[in-house]
Structures are given as structure tokens and as C-alpha cells.
């Protein structure tokens, strides 16, 4: 087992390169930007549909008002995604361009929206007016939205990089010059989409978005099968097990299917048909990742209530609350689960077992698949029941999944518990008590009121990873003089871990009377913020993006640095060290 893990671990640089791919990053970040639309619209969907289960139906005017809000948000999801993906892709393209000759992402977003509409919508004309056919403007058009965004970004880069633009005299204000600079790439983009649309419709008789669906439908169908589901979610867990952020690699490939299948399930259910799609966002959030990647909900309860090891009990008590809300990094890194051969088998195969159980209930017992989207932080059991519309079979399936997960994890949990007990037996009781008290204090300090849910996860995660180099010590007075008026931005994978260090810096600076401004954000949303900060710090999960961040920072003239492992948790827990670290980086 250890040899297998070592082989997989050697592939980390390759997997990190995939996660950093600008196309996959643009899809991930662009899709992440429209998640509020999906969650907001689903609130109206739930209010309109769930009461029907108990025989209550809203009056027509109220029902129409509820569905109008849903259709006017979820119904244009692909339009919004074309814009957000184009924006993030333009940011990635700008890294390869001189800082005085950048792509205007606003113009790029507008071109992507128009191009997407040309490729995916027909004109509906009546005697009174005309409008758009909305069939592919929602979730069904996501793949076309990604394509429109990428084509737009590539065309813009071609013309901007070669200075094939309308140039204005120096006396013309920059905002007006920028408008004329965008005319050629914008016009070429729209012309390319327009001509392609005419040719495609003449050849096939339908729009490009419909053709994309037809081409990818076999892949979606295969992905919804037992083997496809096992490959998708087994890979996601496998990547996480060796320390690579699995969703960054897997989700961009299935993002369109996750949302489209949810929409199809809801439409089928409303039409009185079987909602048969398994590969959905709800299934991933609440069945596959019940308690976080690896389906660790039952495991944290084992740690908390069944472990004989005092260390495991301490970790379980500190991690149980965040894990219940699908934030399981405290358990993954503090136990640890990541790179721990004992937990390799259940961590990879429990998610596969869960999704297969869901598929069996849908295929053979007639249960409808997930139809309603809820925030991913909803506790897994609650999200499962609500996302499946309170079907009686959902309660049965949930009980079976919990039992199966318990059965998969329990033997390995017992083996690890015995191993830890043997280690603890070699330590004097006094040393053991001190060790557990210190660890529990650190975990609780990180998890209670210090940061948001993701920051909670990072506290334990960073604690378990080894440090490359400790921060250099400087005097408090020197740090204060160097840091007054400075601004520090901390970035991580999802915008939560970064809050741990940002909050620690802010607290330490306030206690010492230092005028230091800090902020935390997700990597990918940082580009527009960079000019407002003097230093950017990458949390351990995002350290692989350092090369790209350096290019971003070079354009605006600020500094950046990446933290790794134990160094990050030391900085977040020691005010003097964190301030000294920032002072040292700014003085370089």
C-alpha cells in the first residue's frame, strides 16, 4: 500500500499542472462565480415545488411569480457563465502580455455574451414583437458558454499581442483610447461567431448549442453509469488523498453535466416522469461528499466517541462540528487521513459505494434523483433528504449509506486506533496530557471565531504538514515601523483558509497599534484586487500557483510569497512571528 501511495505521490507535479491549466481554471472560476445564481434560484424552486409533496399547491399568481424568479435567474445561467468564464480566461491570458498592453476583460465579457447568444438562440417572431428562444440559455448551454468564452479570449489575445488595434493620439483620454482599441478584436469576435452560426445552421439545420449537446450526450450518459461514476469520484478522492485538490481537476470536466442533469431531473419530475439522472450537483455535495471528500461523516463520529486513543478523541472533538458542515480538512490533516496508508481504501471507495447506492435506488427502486440545489455546507443527511424532495425512499437510502460507510471505515479505524494507543502507551501520562491539551487548544482556537468555515478546515490542515522554513525574528518596534500603512492580501484555494492568517495578522497589528490592513480571498478572484495591496501571501493549498501569481504581481509592482505546511500555522498562531514574516517579505 505504501509503495502504491509513493507511486501516486510522484505524479503530484503533473496533477498540479493540470489544476493550474488556464482553461480548466477559467471553467472552475467562471462556474464558481455563478454558484450564487444557482443557490438563489433554487430557493424559489423549493418554495414552489416542495409543498406539492403534501398536496398543497400555491394559487396560480403566486406560483407563476415564484417560477418567474427561477426562470429569470437559472434560465440565463449560461449567459452569466459565458461572461464570468471569459473574464477569468482573459485574466489568465494577460499573464503572457506586457503590463502596458492588456486585454480589456469587460469588452471580452461583452463579446463572449453576444457570441454565445449567436451560437445558442433562435429568434422568435410574432406579429407584435420578437425575442430569444431560451432553450439553451440556461444550464443546457453551459458547454457552449465555455467555448464562446475561450474563442473570445484567444481572438482578443491574438490582436492585442500584435497591436492590431485602432490607435489614437496620445492626447486622447485613456478610457476613450481603450474603446477604440477594442473595436477590432470585438468586431472580429462577433463576425467569427456570426459567420460560423450561419454556416453551421445551413449545414445541420439547428443551432450550435444543440449540436454540442448531441455530441457530448453519449459522454454524459457514460459518466452517469456505474463505471463512469466510480472513475469520477474515485479520482477526486484519490487526488485529495495524495494532497492534490481533487475538485480543481475533476469538477471542470463535469460541471456542465452536474447542473444540466439537475435541471433535467426537475423538468422530468414536474412532467410526471422519472427523474433518472444520478450525476448531479446534489449527489456530489450530499451523497459522495457526505462530511467532505472521502465521505468522512461517520469517521469523525468514530474518532469522537469510539476511539480509545486520547489523541484521536481530541481530534474528533475538534473536527466534529466542521465535518458535519462538509468541512473535513481538520480531520484529513490532523488525524491525518491524507497520505495515511491505513485509510487509503475506505477514503477512496466509500464515495464510490455511496454514489452506487444512490444509482441503485434510482434505477431499480424508482426513486427520483436530486432535483433541488442547496448550499454545499448543509449537513449531508439534511441535504440528501431535502435535495431528493423528502421522498420516503430517501430516508431508507440515507440509513443504508451511513451503515455502509461505517462498515467500510470501521476496520481501518480500529487498526489505526490500536496503532495510536500503542504509541501513547510509550509516552508518560504527563507528556501525553500536555500534548493533547496543546493540540486541542490549537485546533479549537483555529476553529472558533477565527475564520469562516474554510478557515476552520485550514487550521488543522496546516498543523499537520511540515514546514520548510520558520519566519525570521525581528523586533516588535521594527515590524511596526515597516508595516504602518501597508496592506496584505492572503489567498487560498477557496477563500477560507486565507482568513486564518489574515485574521491573525489583523489581530496582532491591532494589539500592537500597527496600521496594517489585511484581506482574505480565493485565488482566481484576486486579479482586480492586486493594485490595492503591497504583499500577497499564498496559503499552503494554493502554493502551486506561485508562478502564475508572480506574473500577476509583476504587472502591478507588488510582492508575493507562498507558505508551506507548519510555517503557515505557526504564523497564524503567533502574532510576533506573523508580523515579522510580513515585515521581512516587504523589506526584500
SSE blueprint:
Layout: H1 2-10, H2 12-20, H3 22-33, H4 35-49, H5 60-71, H6 77-94, H7 105-120, E1 123-125, E2 130-132, H8 142-161, H9 174-181, H10 183-204, H11 208-223, H12 226-241, H13 246-270, H14 281-288, H15 297-305, H16 310-324, H17 329-334, H18 344-364, H19 380-387, H20 392-425, H21 429-447, H22 453-463, H23 476-483, E3 486-492, H24 498-511, E4 516-522, E5 535-538, H25 546-556, E6 559-562, H26 566-573, H27 575-587
Parallel strand pairs: 3-4, 3-5, 5-6
Antiparallel strand pairs: 1-2
Helix pairs in contact: 3-6, 3-13, 4-5, 6-7, 6-8, 7-8, 7-10, 8-10, 12-13, 12-18, 14-18, 14-19, 15-16, 15-20, 16-21, 18-20, 21-22, 22-26, 23-27, 24-26, 24-27, 26-27
What report would you give on this structure?
The structure is a single chain. With 588 residues, this protein is mostly helical. It contains 27 helices and 6 strands. A 4-stranded parallel β-sheet has the order 4-3-5-6, sandwiched between helices. It has a two-stranded antiparallel ribbon with strand order 1-2. The longest helix is centred in the last third of the chain and has 34 residues, at 392-425. The model is unreliable at 449-477 (pLDDT under 50).
Give the C-alpha Rg: 26 Å
Number of helices: 27
Number of strands: 6
Low-confidence stretches: 449-477
Q: Order the strands across the largest sheet as they lie in space.
A: 4-3-5-6
Helix content: 55-70%
- The termini sit apart by 44 Å
Q: What is the overall shape? A: globular
